[in-house]
Amino acid sequence: MSEALTYQTGSSKVLGVIASSPTDVGPVLKAIVESACELCEAYDAVVRLRDDDNLRLGAHHGPIPITLEKWPISRDWVAGRSVLDKKPIHVRDIQSAEGDEFPGTRELARHTGNRSFLCVPLLREGESIGTIVLRRTEVHPFSDKQIALLQTFADQAVIAIENVRLFDAVQARTLELSESLEQQTATSEVLEVISASAGDLEPVFQKMLENATRICGANFGTMGLFDGDSYQNVALYNVPPAFAETPQKFRPHPKSGVVTATRNREAFQVEDIRTQPPYLEGDPAVVAISDRAGARTVLNVPMLRENEPIGAITIYRKEVRPFSTRQIDLLANFAKQVVIAIENTRLLKELRESLQQQTATADVLKVISRSAFDLQTVLDTLVESAGRLCDADEGTIFQPKDDAYCLTASCGLSPRRKEFLENCSFQPGTDTTIGRVLLEGKTVHIEDSQTDPNYQFQDPEVRTRLGVPLLRERAPIGVFVLTRRDVRPFSDKQIELVQTFADQAVIAIENARLFNETKEALERQTATADILKVIASSPDDVQPVFEAIAERSNRLVNGLSTAVFSVVDDAVHLMSFTSINATADAALKAITDVPLSAFPVGEAMRKGEIAQIADTEDEATPDFLRDVARLRGWRSSLTVPMLREGIPIGIIAVTRVVPGLFDDHHVQLLKTFADQAMIAISNVGLFNEVQDRTRKLSQSLDDLRAAQDRLVQTEKLASLGQLTAGIAHEIKNPLNFVNNFSALSVELVDELHDVLKPAPLDNKTRVTSDELTHMLKSNLEKVVQHGKRADLIVKNMLLHSREGSSERRLVNLNGLVEECLNLAYHGARAENQQFKMNLERFLDPTIGRVDLFPQEMTRVLLNLISNGFYATTKRKAETKLDGYEPTLAAATRNLGDRVEIKIRDNGGGIPAEVMDKIFNPFFTTKPPGEGTGLGLSLSHDIVVKQHAGSIEVDTRPGEFTEFKVILPRVAATSKAGADK
Amino acid sequence: MNLLILVVDDEPDVEALFRQQFRRDIRDGRFTMDFAQSADSALKLISDVAGASLILILSDINMPGMTGLELLPKAKAARPDVPVIMITAYGDADTKRKALEGGAEALLTKPIDFVALRGEIDNRVAGAGAEVRCH
Known about the structure:
The complex is a heterodimer. Chain A is of the alpha+beta class. In chain A, 35% of the residues are buried. Residues 974-980 of chain A have low confidence and may be disordered. In chain B, strands 2-1-3-4-5 form a five-stranded parallel sheet, with helices on both faces. Chain B has six helices and five strands; from the N terminus they run βααβαβαβαβα. In chain B, strand 4 (84-88), helix 5 and strand 5 form a beta-alpha-beta unit. Chain B is globular and about 40 Å long. Chain A binds chain B through residues 729, 732-733, 735-737, 739-741, 744, 748, 791, 803-804, and chain B through 11, 13, 16-17, 20-21, 89-90, 92, 110-112, 114.
């Protein structure tokens, strides 16, 4: 129990010591050996710690002397064995056989008198880091408890050692971190300075140097920039005032640290500059820094940009104390940062400059685009911006006018200079900036014109000159000139900028030119389109077109007035003009309606040329024209002929208030109008022609159709004719037999009667036979009668269908009419000997010959005449009038290209209800058997369809009927043929 | 000697007609009439005639087979002394011309004017009688 307690107390004591000295293992080990002795009934304890291959004394408590501070680890020694085997070793008696294993310890024990040993290794994570050894000078083995106890102490010792180690590690780490932090802070400070300094490097250098010096534990520092030849100090930190007074620009001694560092491209430290050649040789800079500033140890680090030295940082200590590797690395880092800072600043500056230029250019372009067609504004903006951005005193642009270059835009010119330059004109040559630019076709930069031998165009206010050509497709169309009052050449960047602006100017000039051209072209096109519209809307009248031309040409050439004339048979007639006032208009009218030769510029017109009068006040102008011009208010005119096949058929003249020649494009415009007027006139002509032609063709077509109809009709008639003829002939034969046999039968009946007369017949028989023969005879007579009627019908039909080739030929019309009258009359008389008729003739002796089908026309006339005979005969039979004389009148009349035939009868007329049917085929008012109803129908067809004539009827029921036939004198088809 | 008149016509009723028209003449023996219904049989008859003196040929023009106009020159060739009178329905100038050119004595149109025909026949009979008496 007390053992346990003692043990606990011992343990807790050790633990207490551990807790109270976390950074120092010494007291802990001491406590351990003391407690170990106490609790293990030993009076000597040693703690040894492993130190690579040795065991080093850690702590000792007890009388037995320690012979060696360091003890090599070997198996010959108890402690060594314990360490190597990693387990406790208990030797009861070292001098006994047990001790054979440990010759080393035994040997030593002979001197020290140790007999019993207990050695326990200190194990940390399975590795020995030391031992605890308990020693007794007597043979007194240790108990198991004591061994266990010692192991406990061993563990505690390990813990303690571990703690310390960890603590140390933490400390070290903390130190590292705080150093890092210091650096980061230093760096961020520098970055702050960089960002806050907006391109100014001086504060940056200062800050960097300060931090570097401080962090590297130096006393003072310098930073210098190298230009390839010498150094220029740009920052000093903590430098003693005396040093600051020394020259800041220097060439370092060839053997100085900074030269070595620069040459080697890496840090170079001089432990004591006073021992080095530069000092010993008395280099003033080194001597100054050492004697006046007190520098001894010096660290030089080069500042490298792409491995080229651009400077160096040097830090000094006032004592001889070399800088650690860490500090050297640190300084090298700083050097890198400085380089980066310098680079960044440079880039930033460049960027700013670039941005400034871009913004300026963009501004200019904005102005250009906004006022794209106002060329002057654009040029003005360009000179102003160029001058401003390139820091020039004067900016000018010169453009060609006629043969030389003149000022067109300027900025920064004094009134004297401006007036002077406005009156100059420049040619290519070596005596002026512009001249040289034009000669060489490229940029010319004269640094000092006053010292330039060839330069002639001197001015006290101008020294440096820059001339840039405005090139379009490599040919100059202008020159941009910037000047400075002092001798200060333009930088490459500025020259580039001016060239950019020159290109802009070219584009602007081009754009303006194209725009104007387009505008003019558009104006022209619109005017042209307007005129064409007018032309299209009045294809048959030229007057509106002339008026439109007069009005628009005025507008487009900014004319005062326009007049349009036509030229017919060499005489000039006014067609349309701009009205000014009554007097002026009268004056204009007075000089027209004259021959072309008397007309102003008439000869030019005759030749088909354009003429201009530049100034009516000119001596050459004829007086009368000058007077007219004065009245009408113009001084210059442009006259253009309208030509058809080289002959002038019209003139357009435009006048203007101002004198001078007209612009080329106005002349072109007026020519275009003249051509259009020509088109208009031609159109009207063509239009009329087309109308005419169409009408004629239409007529032709109608005629052809009519002729075709007639041909068809003739065909029809012919075939009808053939048909009827055929039928008629077929019927005729049997009809003849009927008639003949009937007539014969009548005779035979008579003969029979005669034969029977003398025969002895009784009364009855005689009466009956008489009756019978009488009846027979009567019947047969009827047969004959009807047969004759049928015959007549057939004859009638044959009349209508007379065959034979009917040719169309010229026929004496009166002769034909006469013939028909006779035919009809005799025919009627042949049928009926009682036939009586008055025939009257009213034949026009001038009627001459008519082209017709004689056979057909005969048929028509016969038909009309026989109808007339019928009507009058019928009336005669029916009428109560005593003095009624059937009369038929035939009349002819010459109607020029037509003829008229009238057949008039004083018969009973045609009742209204049948008027529209009379020409219908098979329509007849005659009793059955007396008419076929074909007569008028066929007559109508013959007259209308075959002869292209007309047939009309005029009648008054109870009084008369008159048929009027009108025929063309010449057949329409042959007329059409003649036309072809 | 019998006087003969030859009538050529394809229509069979023509015979009855002529025989009735000239019944008295035939009954009285002034002349006889023969009828051929085709040009061919007519020619045969012409060449066969015996004992009868042919004094006249009357022929229709429109007949199937040989037409009257075709018969005309043949008849004239066979008996140049016998006149031929053409009878036809077509009385146009062209037909008339052809008939007369072919040697016909005359052209009569249908319906036959028997009075005129009788006149013609009487002439022939008288002439022939004279001839006969001369023989």
